[in-house]
Specification:
CATH superfamily of the largest domain: P-loop containing nucleotide triphosphate hydrolases
CATH architecture of the largest domain: 3-Layer(aba) Sandwich
Bound molecules: adenosine-5'-triphosphate
Strand order of the largest sheet: 6-7-8-3-9-10
Radius of gyration: 23 Å
Number of helices: 8
Number of domains: 2
Length: about 350
């Protein structure tokens, strides 16, 4: 586990703004921190970045108790980088901004220049290397801030609303970049957002904060559900209702679907097959819905479909090319029985 926070409390002027019984951040994963304004997301990020000392509770980082004493702080802060929502650039060139942190770490000139080229290429800003940082647009500034952070090769990258104030094109670039960094470097990433869709599409785990409390943690495609025995044989498989919104029949494969009424269910994104709803009248899909996001990920394509709740489908490249789903398309989804797991 990268971080474990227990009984964590934070206060501003005696006012309680965070109170978290337990929170875990898994190493090498992308986590979304989702919540409304004032929920405590930025406050929590500052604690994870070792920039603020919590008022109470315990914290471990890579299994070790966190020691925030002055003598230890510097080496802790070197392992984690926070990218602010409104990053402040130094009044120098794009290259100068990236080199700054490297100079502090006494990285030699030749290696600095190599890293500058590498990260500018990564964020697609190579042609701006000698431009003044202050001349960049909002979206480009956010990408430069990411390049500046990535130059330091952090174990953990924390991003405060990385796409909140940028246009759609830059949003897509930044989202793809975060996935690339996570996949190629194994960097643990935590980003804050108000956007449920972004959380569902980008993160493997979503932590929901409400009024400073961790309301719930959701894994990709894990849903609260209830089971109903409506119609059919009384001892046959029940129907399953996701978040009280979408019902589907459970396949008659398990010997003992739950006798209880409520639970949590996981639908494996790799065991969901997507087809164009109108082109396969012979197939009765488990769900139909509208594509809301398509994004390349590693050697697969991540497609998010709104079926009443947001469902992530991971499509192999060849299947994606065949079906070619686009945002706005109506599609059918078939969930393989072995892709359905009851949690808890
Ligand atoms: N430096 C501060 N001094 C006093 N109160 C603060 C300070 N920073 C944040 N707060 C308060 O703490 C609470 C949590 O704020 P925080 O910025 O962490 O929320 P957030 O979820 O990041 O919100 P947003 O989505 O608007 O950025 C809010 O009520 C805020 O007013």
């Amino acid at each position: 586990m990268c971080y474990t926070l227990t009984q964590l409390v934070q206060r501003y002027h005696q006012r309680l703004v965070l109170s978290i019984d337990r929170l875990e951040i898994e190493a090498g994963r992308i986590h979304a921190l989702l919540g409304p304004n004032g929920a405590g997301k930025t406050t929590l990020l500052h604690i994870l970045a070792f920039l603020a000392t919590p008022a109470g509770g315990t914290m471990t980082f890579n299994g070790e108790p966190v020691d925030l004493s002055a003598s230890n702080l510097l080496q802790l802060r070197r392992r984690v980088v926070l990218v602010d929502q409104h990053p402040i650039m130094f009044s120098t060139t794009v290259r100068g901004n990236i080199e700054f942190g490297l100079k502090i770490r006494r990285v030699g000139t030749r290696e600095r220049l190599r890293i500058v080229d590498e990260v500018l290429d990564l964020v697609g800003l190579d042609r701006y290397k000698t431009a003044a940082a202050h001349e960049l647009s909002g979206g480009e500034t956010q990408r430069l801030a990411l390049a500046r952070a990535l130059a330091l090769r952090p174990e953990v990258l924390l991003c405060d609303e990385p796409t909140a104030s940028v246009d759609a094109e830059n949003q897509a670039i930044i989202a793809a970049l975060l996935q690339q960094i996570n996949a190629e470097r194994g960097t643990t990433i935590v980003f804050t957002t108000h956007d449920r869709l972004q959380a569902a599409s980008l993160a493997q785990r979503t932590l929901v904060l409400e009024n400073g409390r961790l309301a719930r943690t959701t894994h990709e495609n894990a849903f609260a559900c209830s089971f109903r025995q409506d119609g059919g044989a009384p001892d046959g498989p029940p129907r399953c209702m996701l978040h009280g919104l979408v019902a589907f029949p459970l396949p008659p494969l398990r010997t003992c679907w739950p006798a209880r009424r409520d639970g949590r269910i996981h639908l494996d994104p790799e065991r969901i097959t997507l087809c164009r709803a109108e082109e396969r009248p012979d197939v009765v899909p488990t769900f139909t819905g509208t594509v809301v996001l398509v994004m390349a990920e590693d050697n697969r394509i991540r497609v998010v479909v709104n079926i009443g709740v947001l469902l992530v489908v991971l499509m192999p490249q060849d299947h994606y090319r065949r079906e070619n789903p686009r945002v706005g398309d109506r599609v059918g989804l078939h969930v393989a029985p072995e892709g359905i797991t009851l949690l808890d």
